[in-house]
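Dear support,

We are seeing what looks like truncated structure output for some complexes. This example has two components. We would appreciate it if you could run it in full and send us the complete token output so we can diff it against ours.
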Amino acid sequence: MNTLLYTFHFYLFGLIAIASAVAFVTRKSPVAAALWLVNTMFCLSALYVMLDAQFIGAVQVLVYAGAIMVVFLFVVMLLNLGQASDVSDIRGLGGRLTAGLVGLAMLAELVALSRIRFPQLTQAVSDQTNVVNPVSAPLFHQYLLPFEVTSVVLLVAVVGAVVLAKRGPNVS
Amino acid sequence: MIAEALFFSAVLFTIGVVGVLTRRNAIIIFMCVELMLNAVNLSFIALSRLHGSANGQVFVLFVMTIAAAEAAVGLAIIISIFRHHKSVDLRNINLLKG
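Here is the complete output from our reference environment:
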């Protein structure tokens, strides 16, 4: 493996992801913000593939960039919020100060985190030809009960979303 | 690569927190929450790679499922709020404010 090329692309995708995230939180229009967030998710998918999680990378593109963000954009279009509002929706001085302090505290934790020395990498869980099996084997043996409970959670969420979004008979 | 991945993850999480604290549009706040979930997923994948085990990737699948459920319910709540207030600006939603 060409280590220099790998490192270069790792930093490239990571920096694009962070730059897209910054663009995402600073856009006024919800549509532009959603599209920048999709860009962040594509870069994260590339990082997953570089960290030997190829299946999760594919699922990231399909589920997050494909399904969840389409639902967000659909709601933005449905509620006709595509235009940025005239008044800025960024909070005033108090909100900005709080956000800045929280951001500084978390950045300090980052610096502490970056001083940790990590041990040498072990062998990757998946080789290039056997990608899904290392994920699916624990999913259907060790974590079978949480997997089934997750399906119940999805059912409850679907029913709840329909009930919440439906117009009631006596509510205008 | 693990330290860099955790660094990117923490930066993305911080950006998500700052977005939640500064924005007032409810849909954008929801998208910031999705960004934070993505940042946590990145650190799950990185630590799963560090330990050479696929259990972290299984948890990422669970997090994605819960995120999808949360997006469905949350957007339904936003649609319902929009019917009442004709706006998704959080300044108009102050029923619980003391």
